[in-house]
Amino acid sequence: MLMKKLIGPLRQVLTLDQLPLKGALRDEQLEILTQAGILMEGEYIQKVGAWAELKQEFPEAELHELDGDYVALPGLVDCHTHLCFGGSRARDFALRNAGKTYLEIAAAGGGIWDTVTQTRGLDQATLAVIATQNANRLLSEGVTSIEVKSGYGLSVAEELKLLRAINQASADTAADLIPTCLAAHLCPKDWKGSSSDYLTEIADLLFPVLLAENLSTRIDAFVEKSAFSPEEITPYLKKAKQLGFDLTIHADQFSCGGSAVAVAVGARSADHLEASGEVEIQLLASSNAVAVALPGASIGLGMAFTPARKLLDQGASLAIASDWNPGSAPMGDLLAQASILATFEKLTMAEVLAGITFRAAAALGLTDRGKLTEGQLADFILFPTSDYREILYQQGKMKPEGVWKRGEKCRAKKQEPRD
Predict the structure, then answer these.
(1) Which of 14, 78, 5 is nearest to 45 (CA)?
(2) Which of 136, 278, 374, 397 is most buried, most CB within 10 Å of its CB?
(3) Distance between CA atoms of residues 170 and 168, nearest Å
(4) Is the pTM of this model over 0.85?
């Protein structure tokens, strides 16, 4: 028989229950339980309700009684990261701030290829340690589910090394890591044939190993002038789909075209979208693809944000992710980035919280997390405040004091005393 645990009393529990997957949200739609508790049984939530009533109804439960004011949110979901990498791109950052463009830096030997070179120089064990350290930092900040891409290997052998490192890291973090194969990040400079030939080799030689070793069920591709055209990438994605992989697309970051590919191939998500116009917004809104905003890339590159307000108003499902990577988005702070995006795009608290919880989970095809309701994973985070609005108001400065993953308490950063 699984042990029951009861935690509370909580000043506020934001269940995010009954919120739709698509479209704009008002803060009045948020279900906020007060003086509440969360009852867990094993890895799952059994009940959320009034603290006093839960204590009386389940006297056998192990009590975790809180002293102080806390707000509970579902564990955050970061549905787009590149946190398994080698080296630094501080040089790129300095060059961008001095006026060079992302594409100019790439042409001069910086950019993605620079990280590929540095990552190839590390062994699997070292990369696993890096991925674990980065994942555990996110976990301490309340991110309990983390998508992690490959894409800095760009050969069959090197991509396998990265994906095996990501899977190895899963054993050393309580966070759930969801590996994604991004071998189609760009055509490697040391590849002698055409871009199409490279994609064919990856599909023929890498995809079967991913399936045989259960390394990843997700395929990503960068559709952009500096990477792969819609015409080049579509056969690759169709083959992945035929083999049973879920798809996601780096779309419309600098130019349009990727979002149309994402919708055409039935991708779970289209990520970036900074260049998306009215046509692309309407296309995404009328599809089942989750639109994923990556404000960290906009901050890192000094460019426009994803048109999040327009996407929501047209009826799209909007998720928000950190895009943590060494080049364009080195911050890796999901809460800070989401709160900044909210300021510029005028997003409600409900829209932001949905975008970093259950809507982000939907971008990963996960339906068992992102809400605090019966039957969901017992993934939740506790913030030291009596008002949930303080969390985004403080723009990432407030971190959770308690992080629970699958019914177990994790280590989390302790807050400095506040006035």
Answers:
(1) 5
(2) 136
(3) 5
(4) yes
